Amino acid sequence: MDEIARIAMIARVLAPGRGEAERVEGIEVAIGDDAAVLLAPGGGHGAARPARPARMVWTIDEQVEGVHFRRELATWRDVGWRSFQAAASDVAAMGAKAWCALSALVLPDSVDDAALEEIVSGQADAATAVGARIVGGNLSRGSGFSIATTLLGVCDRAVTRAGAKPGDGLWMAGQVGLAACGLRALESGRAIGPDIMPAVDAWRRPVALVNVGLAMAGVASAAVDVSDGLARDVGSLAEASGVKAALDASELLSDPALVKSAAAMGLEALDLALYGGEDYALIAASPVPIAGFRRIGGIEAGSGLVLRTRAGDSSVLVRGFDHFGK
Amino acid sequence: MDEIARIAMIARVLAPGRGEAERVEGIEVAIGDDAAVLLAPGGGHGAARPARPARMVWTIDEQVEGVHFRRELATWRDVGWRSFQAAASDVAAMGAKAWCALSALVLPDSVDDAALEEIVSGQADAATAVGARIVGGNLSRGSGFSIATTLLGVCDRAVTRAGAKPGDGLWMAGQVGLAACGLRALESGRAIGPDIMPAVDAWRRPVALVNVGLAMAGVASAAVDVSDGLARDVGSLAEASGVKAALDASELLSDPALVKSAAAMGLEALDLALYGGEDYALIAASPVPIAGFRRIGGIEAGSGLVLRTRAGDSSVLVRGFDHFGK
């Protein structure tokens, strides 16, 4: 099974049954979105709940050495920073304020005390940058290094992937394709010139757009963050909403930093924009503009994902980073 | 550094500074207890909070193949079950009701789809057993198999490790030493006879005492679960409370299942009781009895941990499972 099929299988196994649905209260969104959505247990869980309880969004992300990063391409502090921002981006994608986090580290012997302090410092820097605090965690020995980060956010209403409507615009905050270009540059071992430096920074030090995401509240009909590539993540929004998404190629190529770094690396900027992940841009569907977002396409009746170019439309292959794909 | 020193270093790096303390509200207990304690963001985070907001307790635990389990000693379903119960026990130790969980799996190629379904089924069984539901998670590829489980619980007031007072009794729910004896039996490869079977079951299928733990609310002055061994975990309670804990050896040897299985394996029952982990017993300090708990000692002025025997007192070495100790 590929990753999507595995997640569908897991959702089936974990679906309420045998009476849990009745017993476990306060679950608004479970598996399948950027984060779970819970009703805050305000003043007595389940009982005397206020008319409009606060929502909590809750995510876990894990970064594994050799899969999500190679140690020689980033400092330990970068590794800590990146792992935290990856989780924070899921909270941003729900339109929630980042609140608290826990982190579970698996440490091989090769991670010494000084390295551990750098990793944790990177996590702390990232938490501070998004206004959150790390309040606990777990340490374990293991042969491979990994960081799992779980983050709680708070909002009045969470913006899920489902809800985009034909006629909505498709809006983006942040950049796409740059981090993938930066990773390719680091992997190539070449000298990093000024045209490529912004791309390398985008990969080493991504910033989850938590504060920008708050502007979606009450406006966006659906949202997703770009972690696995624009095509795949917008494709998942379209699928969850039961609509077609159309991306405007010229808008994707309007980022000078992407165009310059792609040219310096001899790569196709459009390919990077569609399939490069880990920039943590935010994508929202909305009938009206959103502060901090620019329009990159629109929502239509139908299904799937199309790319609008001056030459005409072409349907886009919804591929991206798949942990278990062949 | 050993594990305790590493956690102290991490707590120092993550301590509020640079203004976060002011910005991040609702944190009652951070690093250093069985779980973090948060004030539920009831009806408007921070603003119009009710006079007695609900508390949430929040933990993350990670089980790593080759460290916490060897695949040949347990079924995949056991592995899923055990990983969930380990996290649930932290919630039980705070006197909270288990609510929702997320799980992050790192899967090597050797874990096929059928194995994954068994693992998730074991997690789901365990969640149902403690009245919780798994509402999301993360899948990643990796060379080593691991499961990180993060669990939220709800309570009116969390029972922390700090707060035990001289004169309190030391009370225990559940058993100690049995799981360690069962693991030794499995590792020995010997045939499992009826005297050893309860010990093997204790290791393969531990049950977090979440419902029993609810009886501590409003009664216990401090509590901890036994994951790393009674001596180490009671030692941590004594240290956090600034008191001395005294264990009664005869009470620790009053469990016939432990005595029989230890004898069958040729092991010292007292040694297993003091230093064996992963049974997930609950230990509470309380001036009065607690339903479901039996007395195993008391709290006195002073510091450290002593063992009371008919022959006299002996101070107990506070050792136990240390991930990074030499």
CATH topological fold name of the largest domain in chain A = 60s Ribosomal Protein L30, Chain: A
What is the total tally of β strands of chain A?
Answer: 13
Largest sheet of chain A: 7 strands, mixed
Q: What are the segments of chain A in which pLDDT stays under 50 over at least 5 consecutive residues?
A: 43-49
Walk me through the structure.
The structure is a homodimer of 326-residue chains. Chain A has 326 residues and is α+β, with helices and mostly antiparallel strands. The first copy, chain A, has two domains: 3-155, 2-Layer Sandwich (60s Ribosomal Protein L30, Chain: A); 169-315, Alpha-Beta Complex (Phosphoribosyl-aminoimidazole Synthetase, Chain A, domain 2), CATH 3.90.650.10. Helix content of chain A is 33%, strand content 25%. The first copy, chain A, contains eleven helices and 13 strands. In chain A, the strands form two sheets. Chain A has a seven-stranded mixed beta sheet with strand order 8-10-7-11-9-12-13, with helices on both faces. The first copy, chain A, has a six-stranded mixed beta sheet with strand order 1-2-3-6-4-5. In chain A, a hairpin with a 6-residue loop joins β1 and β2. In chain A, α3 runs parallel beside α4. Chain A is globular, with a radius of gyration of 20 Å. The model of chain A is unreliable at 43-49 (pLDDT under 50). At the A-B interface, α1, β3, β4, α4 and β5 of A face α1, β3, β4, α4 and β5 of B.
